[in-house]
Design a protein that fits this description.
It is found in: Cytoplasm. There is one protein chain. It contains 12 helices and 10 strands. The protein is of the alpha+beta class and 308 residues long. The chain has 2 domains: 159 residues, NADH Oxidase, CATH 3.40.109; 102 residues, no CATH class. The chain has a 4-stranded antiparallel sheet, with helices on both faces. The chain has a two-stranded parallel sheet with strand order 3-10. It has a two-stranded antiparallel sheet with strand order 5-6. Strand 5 and strand 6 form a beta hairpin.
Length: 308
């Protein structure tokens, strides 16, 4: 006979799968003791660059009970975004996560459905959904919930599906059965460290965010420092190098989320097309895309930096 904890845990995991999530892991909502010194050191070394928001809400980042009062469980979820088709070779490159509709919208809807399901099936459960937009350490929770280990490139990795997926959470005030961590399977491999075009992975498991191509092309609002000229490997929005070279991503399978499919024009665009892109084309191709974050002028700045 299943007790309620087991029953509720199974219900949630089955529904998460039905909603299209790759996997679901659950951990106890408590202070992230191991992460605290790591985050503090990273911030003290200014590895967040201009991402000042990383310095805010230090306590909330480490303690989910400060985000959701009375919370008992963190339900971590993965959603695959690995595309079936990729951009052609003669193109400036976009990170694969940005091919389709902005994941915030897609995942938020799924998370709301999951929370409503929990409330309908289990009763009076309070909680909040998080998709990378609040001070939650997604990767730390996913690792704690047994969904993978944090690789040397600081992304979550799993033996079954690699690392091309989004991470999201529901923090709820319901006691559930908790999963256990998996072991690290990076071994002696340094593929990601060796391949990083800007040497942003300063040591295994530590990424200097202020040197990362994703930071320069998305977060940085000023001009890109000239010392990085010629080192962007044609990336105009984000960068996938450390994931592309990771042996575990041999096991990535294409997603089955229609909203993540790229705009038909996107995959065919050449470098020449990108150089000549108009605001009208930008609006059409990136109508609901995460690329809107950098705005038309930001993308133009990135393209100009690549071709100069």
């Amino acid at each position: 006979m299943l007790d309620n904890k087991s029953k509720y845990t199974q219900l949630i995991k089955i529904e998460a799968k039905r909603l299209g999530f790759l996997s679901c892991g659950i951990s106890k909502a408590q202070f992230l003791e191991e992460e605290a010194p790591r985050l503090e050191k990273w911030l003290n070394n200014n590895m967040n660059g201009e991402m000042r928001y990383m310095e805010n809400h230090f306590d909330k980042r480490l303690d989910p009970t400060k985000l959701v009062e009375g919370s008992k469980s963190v339900v971590s979820l993965l959603l695959n975004y690995y595309p079936e088709e990729k951009q052609n070779d003669d193109s400036f490159k976009l990170s694969k996560y940005a091919y389709g509709t902005d994941y915030h919208f897609v995942i938020k809807d799924k998370l709301k459905s999951l929370l409503h399901f929990i409330q309908d099936e289990i009763g009076d459960v309070e909680g909040r959904a998080f998709v990378d937009s609040a001070p939650v350490l997604d990767k730390a929770w996913a690792a704690k919930s047994g969904l993978g280990w944090i690789g040397k490139h600081s992304n979550l990795l799993s033996q079954q599906v690699g690392s091309f997926y989004f991470i999201a959470e529901l923090i709820i005030d319901l006691d559930l059965e908790y999963d256990v961590r998996v072991t690290d399977h990076c071994g002696t491999c340094t593929a990601c460290i060796d391949a990083c075009p800007t040497q942003a992975i300063t040591e295994p498991y530590v990424v200097d965010g202020s040197k990362c191509i994703s930071y320069f092309t998305i977060e940085l609002k000023e001009n890109i420092p000239t010392e990085f000229k010629g080192r962007f490997d044609d990336w105009m929005f984000g960068c996938d190098v450390c994931q592309d070279v990771c042996p575990w991503n041999r096991f990535s399978k294409p997603h089955n989320e229609p909203l993540f499919n790229p705009h038909p024009e996107l995959l065919a665009m050449t470098k020449k097309d990108w150089e000549e892109i108009t605001e009208e084309t930008f609006r059409k191709v990136f109508k609901k895309s995460p690329v809107k974050r950098t705005k038309f002028l930001g993308l133009k700045r990135n393209i100009n930096f690549l071709k100069e």
